[in-house]
Design a protein that fits this description.
This protein has 206 residues and is an alpha+beta fold. The chain contains seven helices and eight strands, in the order ββββαβααββααααβ.
Amino acid sequence: MCIRDRIYTFRNGHRVKIPAYQKGVKLPFPEPLGEYTCYQLEHPETATLPYVIPGVKTVTVLGSLYPEKRNKFVRLLTRLIDLRLVSIPMATKLIGMSMRSKKKVSLPRLNASFIACIGEKDGEKGQMSYGEVNTKTTTAEVTSQPLACAVFHIAHGGKIKPGVHLPETALTVEDIVKMGKRYNLSFVTEAKEQMVWSEKTISIGW
């Protein structure tokens, strides 16, 4: 599981293990979400990006549930699993029960993303960041769209070299954006045109 026990991350040029889903970091998402706490989890980017971004020193992936109280409950369950006090099947059952309520509560659908690249620009240290909150598209739909772009790319005569590829090497960003615009996909049509540069960087607080 990507949110329990100890997980791999990429830090200071090395692959290391850290406690999962325990260290919280506040990220400045756009409204209607606003500042929200996310937690370190295991995801493929910590393994793949160091191979495709020359000189990258640290890759961190954070995630969170909505509303915030779900994070507290899941974090407690993962600790109980690590201590062998609760089994994974039992934890799954408890999570399902917690999401079923006798009171019908209508929560807004929020699918938020935030990306920050920390480094130097014109000799000054800072970060380039991009954030969005999508209230129309589910996480499952957003995740599958780049794969659909690859299929459409081939269908329209595009080329992909034979073999097994990392997500970041199968297509160029230009190819993905081109397909996204052609089919009016949300990750292109609802994206901001310009990323934001700031001299203030996000601190993970190692």
